[in-house]
Amino acid sequence: MARDFVSKEATWYQYHEGVSDPTLIAPETYTLDQHFLDRPGNIEIQLDLVKHYSTNGAMYPKFHAYFRAYHPQLLAVWGNKDPYFLPAGAETYKRDSPNATVKFYHTGHFALETNAKEIGQDVLNFLNGLPK
User: Cys bridge to 115: 31, 65, 76, 105, which one at CB 3.0-4.6 A?
Assistant: First the structure.
């Protein structure tokens, strides 16, 4: 059932799946997310977003055409165990732009929860390498 997508179990799964050290996931992160997911009327909003998510995917060719045409500096950070956005999707950025840097971390969907220091340093390094 689609409503299961916004259940407490699904939210917990999104934070924990693919994570090598679950102790790095602070309980308040998924608890707070669930609190807001459970607000009156919000389940219908979330289900509408899921129902229409394919419109997001339909935009991908336009995004990648831009990358191929303009080769922007780009940093994509990615959990290599993300059950939703698979690593192969990240690789397309490198294929379409020679200025793309893709960094994988040994974690799941919410990579900042487990790898904030590394990602923060990679973002700073990326920004420092941009033309002044």
Answer: 105
Q: Cα separation of 70 and 67, whole Å?
A: 5
Six-digit token pair at 46? 């979330």
Burial class (CB in 10 A: 0-12, 13-18, 19+), 101: middle
The two structure tokens encoding residue 24: 């790095």
Report CA dihedral (93, 89, 121, 118) to the nearest 10 degrees. Answer: -160
Q: Which residues contact 19 (CB under 8 A, 6 or more apart)?
A: 25, 81, 107, 108, 113, 114
Give the type of residue at 130: L
pTM, 2 dp: 0.86
Domain 2-128 in CATH 3.20.20.70? The answer is no
